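anyone seen this seq b4? input:
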Amino acid sequence: MAEDILDQAGEEGGALDKKAQKKAERARKKEEKKQRKAEKKQMQEEESQEEEESGGSKIAVILATIVFIAIWLAILALIIKMDIGGFGSTVLHPILKDVPVINKILPETEKEPVVDAQYPYTTLDEAIARIKELEVELSDTQSQSKGNSDYVSQLEAEVARLREFENEQSAFEEEKTKFYKEVVFNENAPDISEYKAYYESIDPANAEVLYKQVVQQQEADAEIEEYAKTYSEMKPKQAAAIMEAMQDNLKLVVKILENMKTDARSDILAAMNAEVAARITKMMEP
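predicted toks r here
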């Protein structure tokens, strides 16, 4: 009897446990459903927020682009208005001058004078009188132009004649200078001191160049004589050594030796290197 009661109580307890489990299961499912709804709602809110932020960023980009374009348009309009580099007056003015509103950005230009198309004369007599006046003015202008043309032709002819005279005079001066040089520096010419005295008595304009050359020649000859005197007073061996070192200017060595006495010259040549002495001797050959 007692066992039956226990079994019955166990069955009743099992039934109660099943009910409690079912109730707990329903509560759990209900809670999960509630959580899913909350998560879905949160996701929708996040998506909506992202869409709002994305829309706001797009609007910001569009506004920034509009501002950027407006700035560049303002800069371009300023360049055109200030006519920098002639861009407004030469490039855009012929294109935009007849476009309303837009042509306001073009630089101000001088207005072309408007020619009055109305006939200026009220009667035929006035027109004929004006024609005669213009004919007289035209005739005077043509006569003056012809006179100027004749005068220009005369001037051109005079210039050509003077240029020919100038060329002939230049050729004459060159020939005269050449003749003077040949006379003065000829081998058979008189002593140069006589020419010096002669040059001082002739026309300075023609003799200036030759006179300077004569004076320079005299000074050079005097300098060579001083060199010859100095080397003559030196020992032949010393003089020979110095002259051997002057192989880059043997012409000067020859002039010095030619102005020395024969004995002094021969002693120096004998003390020189045979090859150098031979070269100098060949240059001294008359």
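The radius of gyration is 61 Å. Residues 2-82 form the longest helix (81 residues). kinda curious what u guys think
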